[in-house]
Specification:
Blueprint: H1 3-11, H2 14-39, H3 44-59, H4 62-77, H5 86-110, H6 114-122, H7 127-157, H8 169-180, H9 184-211
């Protein structure tokens, strides 16, 4: 098999890799905010539950969570495994990354000076208005570098979908490597991931620069 043919076959799985990446961000970013707000709740039952969920999701391997979400319903309730494995894969990735995003959101929220809240109260803002109009925009600016790091990690973690035999790019590369008895497919996969990550990093740098307080 030529290098070009190999690259084209692996590129066929790139669409599924992108699907995992974008759908995970679509669901994990808002879910992470919800969990972060629960974590900061004044009600101990809610904050305790959120803390426990975050602890479990961050303390267990993503690979284990993928297997649990994909095959758990069958072993526990006898529900057949979904034919479209993109669904459990995205669910597992979303809840896992929501836990990490929640902690990043929380660190940004807690870093805001108390004076910001007091000034908003003096101006007559409600708690909801204060958060979404004053606090949240500043939090986003502060957490962008940490978010960028997690998003870059997500690009690489999409390869873990091979655990549940989802035919994304790395899975296809692994199959080609086994059939051809060659390490070249892994090199090609590495190039794909590097280019993908380079594009993501470039976009995030542009976003950070656009939202920076210190524009030159």
């Amino acid at each position: 098999m030529t290098l070009m043919t190999m690259a084209l076959k692996m590129a066929s799985g790139l669409e599924k890799t992108c699907a995992i990446f974008f759908l995970t961000l679509l669901f994990a970013l808002p879910l992470g905010m919800v969990v972060a707000l629960m974590r900061g709740s004044k009600y101990k039952v809610i904050s305790g539950a959120a803390s426990f969920i975050i602890s479990v999701l961050r303390g267990t391997p993503l690979m284990l969570q993928l297997i649990a979400v994909t095959y758990g319903p069958y072993y526990l309730f006898g529900i057949s495994v979904s034919r479209n494995k993109l669904i459990p894969v995205v669910v597992a990735f979303s809840i896992n990354y929501a836990a990490y995003f929640a902690e990043i959101y929380r660190s940004g929220i807690e870093s805001m000076p108390v004076g910001q809240y007091e000034a908003a109260q003096v101006l007559g803002y409600s708690r909801v208005q204060t958060f979404f109009k004053i606090i949240f925009p500043q939090v986003i600016r502060r957490i962008l570098p940490s978010m960028t790091n997690e998003i870059v990690t997500l690009v690489k973690d999409t390869s873990m979908a091979f655990t549940v035999s989802y035919q994304e790019m790395f899975t296809i590369g692994k199959q080609i490597a086994n059939s051809e008895t060659s390490f070249i497919p892994f090199v090609v996969a590495g190039v794909f991931y590097y280019v993908f990550n380079a594009a993501v990093s470039f976009i995030m740098r542009r976003v950070e620069k656009a939202m920076s307080y210190y524009k030159i």
